[in-house]
Design the sequence.
């Protein structure tokens, strides 16, 4: 279905971009603008027909047309896959003088290659041109002399072509002459056969796509020329060495596929830093599905490649589907289109694939975006500002993988320029599961979050950040887990309870009471002694570190302790250090008693249950909840202080039980 869809997309684009010229796709299937492909000047060998005889009439410099495509079509210049000049009228490049005269003999002789023109070599016009400018032509020496005379006036990257003026004064260039155009088509076939991978991949058989019997090439022949992703992208299921047996394609279908790749696939600009994401819509094998695909490309090509306005760039797929969705939603036709997504890393050192996602529907993508937005807007955790509220992921960030790339591997799988190396593709794996309703295990995704959090922690330590854990990162992680739970794809092997927060009223006057409310509102934490202990420890560690910052210490507890060392065996060790230090600071401030005593009681309850009944958490889950506590704890303390201040202002008699809590400030 993928090959068929590329062929259909290429045909639709050709019908629009190459209207009125059936050979145009051979000239401009590949983009010929920019870089070494550009044409800066055109040199025409002028031929004049008089009394039925063709004669040489000098050379002239011609300005290129207004666009590279128009120049190519008029003068007969083409490239194959941005690399090979397949035109019958060759391009002369170089910065030294005499470029044209040095290359002239081969350039002229190539026009009359019988392997290229085949039976067209005997076409009367071709024969006349050959007799005039060919190797033994009457005007050969005059042409060389005239070209040498104008060589210093010819700009870099010149195109050498011919013009034929008939007896009525009508001038035709190479691109106007059918015999040369047909020769170009044959040249493209010959060039493909000359590729090393195509020598044993050519013959007359039935084309896989159009079902016509013709001279066909194995898929591997074109893959080697067109793609660098292990010679197979975007068809990873096929090995190029076996492609001849499995996927023979005729030159027409190959050209259409090349048009689709160059003008649709390569035109897209999606993906995380260092990773390319390509979107390919395809039709299911049902009635009228192909026509739906043609309609989509005709109406929405620019939206699909991300070339729309600012709003459309955030939701390119939904924007593309808007015209298509109407009849589907009215049950006038079945939704027969799906999306395939390709992710691959490309840099100067290596090029390889990351992931291939197939069978994505636009409904699934829209539902996921809505769920992610609701998870942020409706969560009491964000409403009460216990975590900073991140922006809801846009459609583009979701399907390109940028959402999960930033969450799971932005630091852990990046080079010195911040681009992905492609060694850790968890983000792509979980993006696929999100888009196809797969299962996301809580323990493995949390392990990836912790690795990324540690990488950010180390980077922020180097910058001497007082708060080394990235609060927005952990807020995004919390929102992602909540989205997965709401979407029904999160699977927690440790508990049947969801991490969806229940009632969280935010009314408490002590630090410990606030932590208890948070834990109780999350059954996935409340039913796991390990997660509960980790969360409370992290919250207390943040409070201690805030005290240390105010005291001017060079390094705080959170800065000094690498969360990778936190295990069930070290929970009590870390807790003892936190509370002993807190007692010391409390006493030095003239306050006596145990700081955060109710929080300490909660911690010991969790540890006791864990030791007797099991921790019900992996070490990475404990570490994640520790980091979550580090970020939530100061905001819980702030709300407790605000509620306590409000309570004291309305009640002139202080509550003696809160005396020891007077210092639980941020």
Sequence:
């Amino acid at each position: 279905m993928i090959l068929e869809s590329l062929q259909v997309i290429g045909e639709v684009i050709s019908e629009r971009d190459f209207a009125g010229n059936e050979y145009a796709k051979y000239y401009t299937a590949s983009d010929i603008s920019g870089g070494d492909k550009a044409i800066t000047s055109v040199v025409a060998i002028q031929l004049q027909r008089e009394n039925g005889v063709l004669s040489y009439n000098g050379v002239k410099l011609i300005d290129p047309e207004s666009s590279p495509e128009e120049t190519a079509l008029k003068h007969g210049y083409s490239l194959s896959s941005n690399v090979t000049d397949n035109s019958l009228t060759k391009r002369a490049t170089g910065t030294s003088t005499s470029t044209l005269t040095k290359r002239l003999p081969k350039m002229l002789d190539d026009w009359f290659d019988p392997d290229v023109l085949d039976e067209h070599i005997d076409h009367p016009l071709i024969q006349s041109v050959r007799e005039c400018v060919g190797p033994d032509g009457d005007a050969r020496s005059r042409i060389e002399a005239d070209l040498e005379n104008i060589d210093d006036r010819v700009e870099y990257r010149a195109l050498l072509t011919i013009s034929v003026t008939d007896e009525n004064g009508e001038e035709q260039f190479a691109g106007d002459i059918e015999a040369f155009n047909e020769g170009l088509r044959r040249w493209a076939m010959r060039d493909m056969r000359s590729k090393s991978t195509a020598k044993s991949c050519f013959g007359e058989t039935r084309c896989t796509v159009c079902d016509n019997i013709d001279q066909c090439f194995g898929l591997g022949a074109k893959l080697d020329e067109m793609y660098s992703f292990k010679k197979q992208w975007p068809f990873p299921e096929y090995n190029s060495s076996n492609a001849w047996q499995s996927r023979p394609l005729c030159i027409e279908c190959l050209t259409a596929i090349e048009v689709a790749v160059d003008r649709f696939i390569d035109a897209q600009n999606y993906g995380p830093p260092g990773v390319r994401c390509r979107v390919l819509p395809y039709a299911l094998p049902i009635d009228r599905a192909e026509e739906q695909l043609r309609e989509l490309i005709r109406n929405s090509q620019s939206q699909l490649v991300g070339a729309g306005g600012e709003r459309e760039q955030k939701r390119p797929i939904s924007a593309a589907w808007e015209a298509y969705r109407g009849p589907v939603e009215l049950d006038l036709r079945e939704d027969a289109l799906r999306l395939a997504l390709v992710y691959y890393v490309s840099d100067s050192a290596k090029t390889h694939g990351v992931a291939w996602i197939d069978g994505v529907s636009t409904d699934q993508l829209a539902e996921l975006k809505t769920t992610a937005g609701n998870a942020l807007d409706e969560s009491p955790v964000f409403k009460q500002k216990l975590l900073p509220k991140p922006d809801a992921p846009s459609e583009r960030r979701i399907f390109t993988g940028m959402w999960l790339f930033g969450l799971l591997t932005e630091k852990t799988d990046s080079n010195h320029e911040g681009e992905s190396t492609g060694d850790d593709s968890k983000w792509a794996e979980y993006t696929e599961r999100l888009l196809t309703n797969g299962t996301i295990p809580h323990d493995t995704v949390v392990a990836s979050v912790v690795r990324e959090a540690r990488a950010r922690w180390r980077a922020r330590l180097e910058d001497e950040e007082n708060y080394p854990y990235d609060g927005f990162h952990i807020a995004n992680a919390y929102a992602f887990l909540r989205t997965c739970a709401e979407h029904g794809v999160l699977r927690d092997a440790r508990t049947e309870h969801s991490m969806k927060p229940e009632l969280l009223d935010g009314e408490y006057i002590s630090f410990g009471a606030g932590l208890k409310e948070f834990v109780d509102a999350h059954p996935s934490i409340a039913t796991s002694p390990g997660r509960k202990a980790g969360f409370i420890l992290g919250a207390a560690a943040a409070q201690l570190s805030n005290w240390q910052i105010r005291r001017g210490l060079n390094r705080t507890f959170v800065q000094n302790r690498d969360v990778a060392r936190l295990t069930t065996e070290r929970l009590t060790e870390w807790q003892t250090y936190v509370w002993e230090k807190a007692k010391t600071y409390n006493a030095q401030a003239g306050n006596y008693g145990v700081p955060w005593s109710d929080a300490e009681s909660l911690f010991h309850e969790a540890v006791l249950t864990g030791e007797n009944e099991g921790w019900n958490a992996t070490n990475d889950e404990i570490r994640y909840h520790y980091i979550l506590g580090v970020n939530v704890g100061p905001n819980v303390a702030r709300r407790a202080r605000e509620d306590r201040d409000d309570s004291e202002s309305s009640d002139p008699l202080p509550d003696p039980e809160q005396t020891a809590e007077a210092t639980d400030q941020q």
In short: Residues 220-245, 650-666 have pLDDT under 50 and may be disordered. The two ends are 59 Å apart (CA to CA). Residues 31-190 form one domain.
